[in-house]
Amino acid sequence: MKTFPKPLTAEEERAFLERYRNGDPEAKRILIERNLRLVAHVAKKYQSCEEDPEDLISIGTIGLIKAVATFDSAKNSRLGTYAAKCIDKAILPCRIFSGAGVKNPAVSYGASNLQRSKSCGNN
């Protein structure tokens, strides 16, 4: 299995975030690449036998990219703390819509919210 690059130190993270805010696309690439280990860690808790771990990592990486783009360092937290929540938010809807971990959709969504869609050929 391929290993992920080591995470950035706090100082490195601050420097790359500053470079990214100044328009350096290489800094964005490094911020994403050096946080891929976090994506794998978060995706692991959603892993089940019917889902491919690489799919979860791909979806989680989208959350990481959004985290890098929207992170506000003025809030005195690390990118990883914020990114973990963004990765969760990216993976969770995919798990719900795929039915993974949902035993009874009527309980999860509420029976009144389940309606047949006429646009999908259901009359």
Features:
123 residues; mainly alpha; Rna Polymerase Sigma Factor, Chain: A; 6 helices; 59% helix; disordered C terminus; RNA_pol_sigma-70_dom; Sigma-70 family RNA polymerase sigma factor
Question: What topology does this entry show?
Answer:
Elements: H1 10-21, H2 25-33, H3 36-44, H4 53-70, H5 79-98, H6 105-109
Helix pairs in contact: 1-2, 3-4, 3-5, 4-5
Structure in words:
The chain has 123 residues and is mainly α. It has a single domain (10-110), classed as RNA polymerase sigma factor, region 2, helix turn helix motif (Rna Polymerase Sigma Factor, Chain: A, Orthogonal Bundle). The chain has six helices and no strands. α1 packs antiparallel against α2 (25-33), α3 (36-44) crosses α5 and α4 packs across α5 (79-98). It is elongated, with a radius of gyration of 18 Å. Residues 102-123 have low confidence and may be disordered.
